[in-house]
Task: structure prediction
Amino acid sequence: MNLFLRTELVKNYKSNSQIARVLTENWVKENSYCPYCGNTYLTEFQNNMPVADFYCSSCSEQFELKSKRTVKIGKTITDGAYSTMLERLNSNNNPHFFFLTYDNSNWSINNFVVIPKHYFVSDIIIRRKPLPKTAKRAGWIGCNINLAKIPEYGRIFIVKDKKIIDKKKVQSLWQGTDFLKNKKGKSKGWILEIMNCVDKLDDTFTLKQIYAFENHLQRKFPNNRFIKDKIRQQLQVLRDKGLLEFKGNGKYQKTKL
Result:
């Protein structure tokens, strides 16, 4: 995997947005692979494809690329139309997301992360203000993706801080939470919320510590009167899927990423 962008491809371009698009899309096409099945190559969709940028010819999984000129991924990523994004969350062809950050001082890749689509729920989509009347697209409403609400297990790095992550580890991390794709509605909401709560705790934590999130979860799920029971149930799911290890006496250990 070459961590440098091919700047010779854009020597005749003047638009910064076009330069970024051409360089990053070409990098993914030449260097990435399908994190789901391991296929060595991803195929680029034709320009202006409304849903995704790449697809895997082996397993047919689709991926949308978002890139940013920065060192870190950050807490939010700018996306397109708010209404379109919400529609896509409930569709069968909603793509997985690639997020890429690069350094334009030497045109190198800083981070490249994939987030499986089963981590995307309406809660992480932030509605932006409508464009003013003076704008060319007056009234248009965009959105941001709140990455801070995606559990750590859902942010699978292919390149992290300029370090290439082993392909087998990437696929193992993906497969470890693939069970989420079969969960819907509140069932998915609960497990994602518990995963986010676990993220806020040390690698080893107690049941008492995670019970401290009871009030937060009660506000999130006001119709549930058995919050502690639900917490224990979701911890058991994470244990059964190998994301947590129960150490006994109310103690849990996170599985290392």
